[in-house]
Amino acid sequence: MSRVGSIFNLANCINTIVLLIQKINNNISCRMHFNVDVIMAKSEKTNHHKQTVADYLIESLKNYGVSHIFGVPGDYILDFFNKLVHTNGINVVTTCDEQGAALAADAYARIKGIGVVCVTYSVGGLKIVNAVAQAFSEKSPLVIISGAPGINKRHGNRFLPHHKVQNFDTQQKIFEHITIDSALIQDPFSATREIDRVLSSAISYKLPVYLELPQDMEELRIVNTDNRNLGNNSFSTPYISSDIGQKLFNGTDDEELKEALSESLEMIKSSKKPVIIAGVELHRFGLQDKLLQLVEKTKIPVVSTLLSKSVVNESNTHYLGVYSGNMSKEHVQRYVESSDCVIMIGVFLTNVTFGITDNPIDKSRCIYIAKDNISIKFHNYKNIRFEDFLDGLIQNIENNNLQNSQIYSENARYDFSPSNTDNHITSKSSTKITVKRLFEILDTSLSENNIVIADVGDSLFGSIDLTSPNSTSFLSPAFYLSMGFAVPASIGAQLANSNFRSIVLVGDGAFQMTGMEVSTIAKLNLNPIIIILNNFGYRTERAILDGPFNDLQMWNYSKIPSVLGKGKGFVVETEEQFIHFLTVAKNTTNDFCLLDVHLDPSDASSALKRLSKGLKKK
Amino acid sequence: MSRVGSIFNLANCINTIVLLIQKINNNISCRMHFNVDVIMAKSEKTNHHKQTVADYLIESLKNYGVSHIFGVPGDYILDFFNKLVHTNGINVVTTCDEQGAALAADAYARIKGIGVVCVTYSVGGLKIVNAVAQAFSEKSPLVIISGAPGINKRHGNRFLPHHKVQNFDTQQKIFEHITIDSALIQDPFSATREIDRVLSSAISYKLPVYLELPQDMEELRIVNTDNRNLGNNSFSTPYISSDIGQKLFNGTDDEELKEALSESLEMIKSSKKPVIIAGVELHRFGLQDKLLQLVEKTKIPVVSTLLSKSVVNESNTHYLGVYSGNMSKEHVQRYVESSDCVIMIGVFLTNVTFGITDNPIDKSRCIYIAKDNISIKFHNYKNIRFEDFLDGLIQNIENNNLQNSQIYSENARYDFSPSNTDNHITSKSSTKITVKRLFEILDTSLSENNIVIADVGDSLFGSIDLTSPNSTSFLSPAFYLSMGFAVPASIGAQLANSNFRSIVLVGDGAFQMTGMEVSTIAKLNLNPIIIILNNFGYRTERAILDGPFNDLQMWNYSKIPSVLGKGKGFVVETEEQFIHFLTVAKNTTNDFCLLDVHLDPSDASSALKRLSKGLKKK
Asked: What angle, 0 to 180 degrees and rounded to 10, lies between the N-to-C axes of helices A254-270 and A386-397?
């Protein structure tokens, strides 16, 4: 057995070297990007034959860079939790409710490139369907591991096991609608292949995947029956072929690429006022450096979307602001919507991106480059990979004369950079705090190590006015818009990057959904600053249609620390208090702080005011 | 148009009368039970042609007896919420999170025979998948109404609307796995037919159903194109034909019924120690009176299951206790497992019913009567309706001589009635409170108007020792076992029956999941007594396999009222304090009370001790 193991190790080693040489020869680092990650990760592995299925899964996750696993235990997954807590390099983070675990793992995945949530069968798994749907909608590589009744208990004339819904595969079938790939581990022969494929699908597509681990499979020793195709499986066919999956599979056709590039370069060259909308896929697929190259070379002004906010360092001289249709700052909206060449890169074409209106930007002046589609004006290119097009653009655009654009770009900055006149902070003001001033004061207070996590509502819309100090320093579910993200997400964010200190912006409505995960924050000794925009109800809904259904029970949020025996709570009514307690919070680095900011129920950010106008029109 | 309306009304009227006459002629009230409900409900309706789709839906729900609708608003369902709050006879109950709304509506459905949860698209709907799965598993007629993007917005080359996951029908597809019937309202012609069918499926099968109401459908005026088949549609074929649906459709074959009855009567007659296990379907299908008739006539001892606890008034002289395999009290387990004729009526054959062991009761001595199966010993009867068999048994068993059974039944009571020796309450005791004493003290304190709602864990297992004062005075998710049911369920229970005062039994782990719905309790001025069995972690899991994953952040639960500005909180350490604060709570009828009962982490009910032994063996 050990000889067979050695031969496999040797084969793996040779395979790895061959693929590394191929990579060097290819010299297209981008195209090999994911493969190489996989290869590097896998070459570290030891003899698989000594491993159980659970061992192999945990080691694979570690090799992908996972160091924290979020979840809530339950009897079908208890042995796996026990194994996890005894694994060096893995920290198990249990939350109050499974929903919180999934949201934390989603945030972790958005920052670290992979996140894992581990739950029990049905009563755990089915609690996180919404959180996983959000990860799917917004391309977050979230791995769901669910315990389940043993394979050997699924046959014959037995009693129904507890937690079972309709059929044994009901949970997996539900997850097939909201994941790119899934597998039920059902024997030790296929286990490694299934685990490899599912995990690499998450990494390749930046989408959630589902792994079901029956109780009687965990401790089986894996058996390798095939010469495992290391490295290549990152583009193997997923079990579930969704539309997105199909589209991603096309390789690049050189002729098509040539035509598309030439057409695009011509459009850009002849344009007088080009603009780049930098979307969230640039962040998810690690292409932020390429964006910077493009911007630096061309000096074309760049905007982000709400979902991709902070994809560009917002102090970049070419950065104009967040574009979000009529929610945008006026100068940003005016610039983008009057541009004669809008280059959208990795942008989701959602109604939120465009301020809940249809089509403010005419397709005839668009170059659209994304993971699942490349289109110019009204026609599409089916066989061009996102990364190849971006590389081609960067390489070839240098040879063009972009004087026109440069002028407009520089004009743009001159004309449109936001004035700082009303941004000074005075601690003398005892004026009642407003949403506008809250964001202005916060904007001047952000540090390099802050990550702003905005929940759905005015917390998000108001953030349009914040300058993110770094790339990846803003997180929000800005397309799917499910309330209750921010508090649990702050846990995932700070664990994904221990340098971060989270600033959580959350409305009272969203806080009442998942806010009690501050309990997990307390348990882990994390130190986010949680700012509750307390406007006594669902403010965004009031803007659309008000009624008693938008009223909430008033909580004394600042007393929550007394329930948890940890944390500091403050009530904020005035600007002065906000400035003061924000400073206190920033100086309190060893505990979480909770600022209950009382806002006028009718007050709103200017973005929300514009949005509600748009929604009412609809 | 109004003339057409009058003709339709006349036709409906005639139809109603004809069906009522048929009913009287048939003289089989049970078989017509649901049809009649539907007829009675529908005969009250006015001219449909003046109604919008939303009006029709709301009126239908009112006719089925709905007076409270639970939910959380969102923009796709906002207009419908607005219409609901302006409808006489409908109370809208908004909760902190959608999960809480669904659990409250499930409890309401279990008591009132129908419950409604109303949510927005995806971000609302997908949050309640687990709660709906629980309702499905435990046969609760829960109606889900979800808002959605307009039908006219689903076509063409538009931007993705916010909240969309993969396809427009992703949410409906997911719900098809956990509902008996579903419909997307997509035109005003079929709307009434779809609404009728889906609602009557919920009533007929006692299972959840899903209705998707796109924004642009709500306000359309309904158009009736067919002579609506009033009354009969309660057994129309549901859109989704699950296994359960198929089984329920068979009518009764008289020959089969005759054979099965004769066989059963013979088995019962010749048995020396028969016992009835009364299952939850008796409660769901309103057959508790028939059970009582059977028990009173035959004097056969009767037990309930954990899921059906309180299906029989527990002070009934023939009632032995809760049977739950090795979790049962010893005398109950011994009696049932040594019986030579076990008559299971409406019992779910789950591992929880039998104490997480396989088959302690030999099939060769079983008569199994349930909604989806009738079987005697090892053979099945496919064409007998549950209610018909039960009626046949009651009618024919009178003519048999049941002396043997009677003797054993009376012996049983003599031998096995629980002793009361250690049940006396003394307020002098300053002994540390134990789980055993908690339940003993509580047992002597329950009043006629109390409904005990037990969450999953020792709250549930310990309840085996409680005597439910009435029928339908105990609620728990005792098969699906999803934690976090009890606090939200208490809202639904008290609104379903305003005479109820809920006693909520909830572990600290379950409370941390959904306990903050006490906020909704505060908002509605409800007065449950919430008893937190605080054993500092997941006690049931500790019994199986312990580790740091079973530890929870310690909360000062008694301080939660100070966060909510309502309610009273007490810390309980001793028996004396428990007796005292329970009395205080009972006397505090205008507010909710929260007792944080500190238990030794290693303490457990005797049922849990037995269960964990069983699980460890597994």
From this structure: 50
